[in-house]
Model the fold of this input.
Amino acid sequence: MQTAKKLSFTDVWINGFFILVSLSMVLPFLLVIAISVTQEQSLIADGYRLLPKHWSTDAYHYIFKSPTILIHAYGVTILTTIAGTLGSLALTSMTAYVVSRKDYRYVKGTTFYVFFTMLFSGGLVPSYILITQYLHLKDTIWALILPGMLSPFYVLIMKGFISEIPKELIESSKVDGASEWRIFFQMILPLAKPALATLGLFISFNYWNSWFPALLYINSENLVPIQLLLTRMMNTINFLTTSSQFMSGITIDTSKFPNLSARMALTVLAAGPMMFIFPFFQKYFVKGLTVGSLKG
Done:
């Protein structure tokens, strides 16, 4: 009969430390959810509590006054996130595969070019001129997808992962008559699943949380993403809660208006969907972070 292994003091200390770290990350989000369903007067009187004294869904009622607009904004964000993530992964993996090949004649120059663009960018004004005047993408869905599709930082991360793949596999495939496209799609990409999942998660977070490109390039209400819509709602809430103090003739009872709870409800709506997606990629995410740390 196998006896249970006793935990040493070091194991207890390490496990306890990471439990505290995990709680420090989970508890704030639970507090945000609790505040979003707390009555505004209770927040003012009792402060923030994990278990609200007085429950209320007024904040969500205020946000969902126009559900069609909110659902449409979610649709725009989901479309840009899926299309942008898939396109970015394709370009990133292809570029990384090229610069990871030692037999590529211009590998040093291409790698330097990728690294240089990570340190120095063209700036906001040239980017705006390129998108609006030369590419004519203003008020199109592509203005939300193309600007963040290729990141040199992600290319270098992917390059480091692909470089760990034995080159003998590529050489043997060439001997068998496989083309470069077949080697890339049937050998490199399946082996790079952990890195693709990790970078895909980062890229999807960037697209999901992006609102500044929409502020610059989008005027049509049909192309407003969820983050920009929630930002506008937040500005409206700030205006309504402060206007009664500085403008005559406006009487708003700010104690009953869902100010603090609405802010937290907006946070839940913005971050909630991605919180549910993350567990499905956790296995690949952890493997992608640790791969390449050990050799042999």
In short: Residues 292-296 have pLDDT under 50 and may be disordered. DSSP finds 14 helices and no strands in the chain. Residues 164 and 292 are 7 Å apart (CA to CA). The radius of gyration is 25 Å.
